[in-house]
Automatic annotation (TrEMBL):
UniProt-listed GO biological process terms: regulation of DNA-templated transcription
Domain PAS: 174-244
Pfam family, one: PAS
Domain EAL: 475-704
Full protein name: Diguanylate cyclase (GGDEF)-like protein/PAS domain S-box-containing protein
Region (Disordered): 1-34
């Protein structure tokens, strides 16, 4: 409630406020005693303390002065029912003097003030007249207040009716617009319960599924997508319902009425009540547009082999993860890792087009082999294929599947040009791996198992073995770290003597590698050479070995350095040896290089040419790993004057057949004029035996 505002405020009077006119003012106003003005101000003050009046201080006092004039006129009149007082009460309401205490304060101030006004002393029976006038004022006030309230109620009713009418109209229009959008939308729309149960779908949604609208009501949304995609869609809506995400956008495959999956984009949202509780799910489904079709095509190209159409290694790895997670605990899964035997030879003979046709034919045959199983065939790269089988009680065992693969591949394929080609494969098998094994680890194990099978020849297969796998993984980790070990100085060159068995005179020195590993201790020459050969490090490391040996050699004894098949076949071998000899100043005759007999017999790469070229520059050659009848041919065909018995044959010399073979082999070498070296001599007895069968030089722990 607001008191009269200070003088000087400029506000216009409300149009509802009664206007003061000349006729309503008392003719005696100008001559009235000052007490009338005082009473008017007091009345204004008390009433404005009970209600807010939107006028200035001056305007309020002017209005109440006019009201008091009306009251004075009523008291002075002879009317039994003074109309001026009734009008004054109504004008109080019009001025908004309608506070809870406005009328009471009016009665109090006028009841006391009128009785003491000098102007009214001449009125006969003044107290009774004042009561009569105040009663008329209260009556006019009450009637005006009732009419005002009624008017306000009628206005409110009309407003509410109008608002309701407009709201209903907007609701009808909104519903009509929604129905138009819902039914005419080019996007499929499904309205479901929060559990996915379908309540409404539009025609486009039904069209995408190639099913009538009525058939879809009551089904579950998650049953309308491909089984492999349902869990992802369900997880997306779970996050949406629990507030972990604000919007669902993903692509999934819809299963149409003809069970042909079609890719579609899903956009989901949640309808919640005012309390925030989820009530419905709204799902918008877009069929593949040209852009999304292109995206799918690119995605397929990224996950499939373009030649055979099979899934590629990336796809295979992804499917492995899912298969392991959902595998039947009683049967698990089986992974077959295949590599075609001798495919590079086949490709070289047939040409690119026929080789590609052969790979496509192999892919088709592998699909036939596992056609009755829940299986996936993939091309892992080159001529390698992978098969994943999710086993059941009816699945064939591993050996049966291997037999089916070999039988199917052995059937000749007639390619363009009439060539009938059959292939075979080596297979690494991982049967029922642990469900928590990472796909990358599973593929690594299958690859190692395949390499183990290939080591046994063509058309071989091997089953993964955890103990072997652990050992091989340990060795592989060492092999790949060998280059770093060489760089930081962990590798060194050691020398061991070669001794004439007849009189124990020095016959030469042999350079050998050793690795002082900080965790695994000392790793010997044979293991170091094998690791280097497997990782491709052997050529630079072998050159370093030859250089270091030549730096340590002198002109008194021959320095011997053994080569691996890869070193022996290296076209840069002779040039490298020339450079070493020139840099160290060692005479060529003081260096002897050991060539593996198998590499010489097979004429691997530049092996035989290297032998002849080294002879031309004065470097001797030694035939190492000499141990089969075919190796004898090398003594005739190549310039070799020294042979070293194969360790695998020497270790079995106590067996009658092996002993006889050794005697014959050494006798033949002696007939060819070759010097025979025996390795692994650990005792005087060993040295005596080898001398007795015709060996000339010995090496081993017995000689240091």
């Amino acid at each position: 409630m607001t008191a009269p505002l200070p003088d000087g405020d400029e506000f216009s009077v409300s149009p509802d406020a009664p206007k003061r006119t000349a006729s309503s003012a008392s003719p005696k106003r100008k001559n009235a005693a000052p007490t009338r003005a005082t009473l008017a101000r007091k009345w204004a003050y008390l009433v404005t303390s009970t209600a807010y009046l939107p006028y200035t201080h001056a305007q309020i006092e002017e209005h109440f002065a006019a009201l008091l004039d009306e009251v004075f006129a009523a008291v002075l009149s002879d009317d039994a029912e003074p109309a001026q007082a009734t009008e004054a009460g109504a004008r109080l309401v019009a001025l908004r003097c309608v506070g809870p205490d406005s009328l009471r304060r009016t009665m109090e101030v006028l009841g006391k003030g009128l009785l003491h006004e000098p102007e009214l002393r001449s009125v006969k029976s003044l107290p009774e007249r004042v009561l009569q006038v105040l009663g008329a004022l209260a009556s006019g006030y009450g009637e005006a207040l009732r009419e005002s309230i009624q008017t306000q109620q009628e206005d409110l009713s009309r407003t509410l009716v109008t608002l309701e009418r407009e709201t209903r109209r907007e609701l009808v229009l909104t519903q009509a617009r929604f129905e138009q959008l819902f039914t005419g939308s080019a996007t499929g729309v499904a309205v479901t319960r929060v559990d996915g149960r379908v309540q409404r779908v539009n025609p486009k949604f039904a069209e995408l599924l190639n099913r009538p609208v009525a058939d879809l009501i009551g089904l579950n949304l998650y049953d309308l997508v491909h089984p492999e995609d349902a869990e992802g869609l369900r997880e997306g809506y779970r996050k949406l319902l629990e507030g972990e995400s604000q919007r669902l956008e993903l692509s999934r495959r819809l299963v149409t009425d003809d069970e042909e999956p079609t890719w579609a984009g899903f956009t989901g949202s949640v309808i919640r009540d005012p309390a925030g509780e989820a009530q419905q799910l709204i799902t918008l489904v877009d069929g593949d547009t040209d852009v999304s079709l292109l995206q799918r095509q690119l995605s397929r190209q990224a996950l499939h082999d373009p030649l055979t159409g099979l899934p590629n290694r990336q796809f295979f790895g992804t499917r492995l993860e899912k298969a392991l997670r959902h595998a039947d605990p009683a049967f698990g899964v089986t992974v077959f890792h295949l590599d075609l035997d001798g495919f590079s030879l086949i490709a070289g003979g047939l040409g690119q087009k026929q080789s590609d046709d052969l790979l496509k034919n192999v892919a088709a045959k592998l699909r036939v082999v596992v056609g009755g199983e829940d299986a996936l065939v993939a091309r892992l790269g080159g001529d390698e294929f992978g098969i994943l089988i999710q086993n059941t009680a009816a699945s064939p065992d591993v050996a049966t599947v291997i037999g089916m693969i070999n039988q199917e591949l052995s059937e000749p394929v007639y390619l363009e040009g009439g060539s009938g080609v059959a292939v075979s494969a080596c297979v690494g098998v991982v049967h029922r791996p642990p469900r928590d094994m990472p796909p990358t680890e599973l593929l690594r194990v299958s690859d190692m198992t395949l390499r183990r099978a290939q080591a046994n020849g063509y058309r071989q297969w091997a089953l993964s073995d955890s103990a072997l796998d652990t050992r091989e993984r340990h060795e592989f980790s060492l092999a790949v770290s060998m280059a770093g070990a060489w760089e930081i100085g962990e590798l060194e060159v050691n020398f061991r003597p070669l001794t004439w068995l007849a009189d124990s005179r020095p016959a030469g020195i042999e350079a050998r590698l050793a690795w002082n590993h900080p965790r695994h201790g000392r790793i010997g020459h044979d293991t170091c050479v094998r690791f280097a050969d497997e990782t491709g490090l052997i050529v630079p490391l072998g050159e370093w070995l030859i250089r270091t040996a030549c730096e340590e050699a002198d002109d008194r004894l021959t320095m011997v350095v053994g080569l691996t098949p890869h070193q022996a076949a290296d076209p840069d071998l002779v040039g490298s040896v020339r450079s070493v000899l020139a840099a160290t100043g060692l005479g060529p005759s003081r260096l002897r290089l050991g060539f593996p007999a198998g590499a010489v017999l097979a004429d691997l790469g530049e092996t035989v040419d290297n032998l002849h070229l080294l002879e031309e520059i004065g470097v001797d050659a030694e035939l190492q790993d000499f141990g089969v009848a075919g190796d004898v041919v090398c003594l005739v065909d190549v310039p070799v004057r020294t042979v070293r018995i194969a360790p695998r044959l020497a270790e079995r010399r106590t067996e009658p057949l092996a002993e006889r073979s050794l005697r014959n082999l050494i006798e033949t070498a002696n007939m060819a004029g070759a010097t025979v070296i025996a390795d692994g001599i650990d005792s005087t007895g060993d040295a005596g035996w080898w001398q007795s069968v015709g060996a000339h030089i010995g090496a081993g722990r017995y000689f240091g």
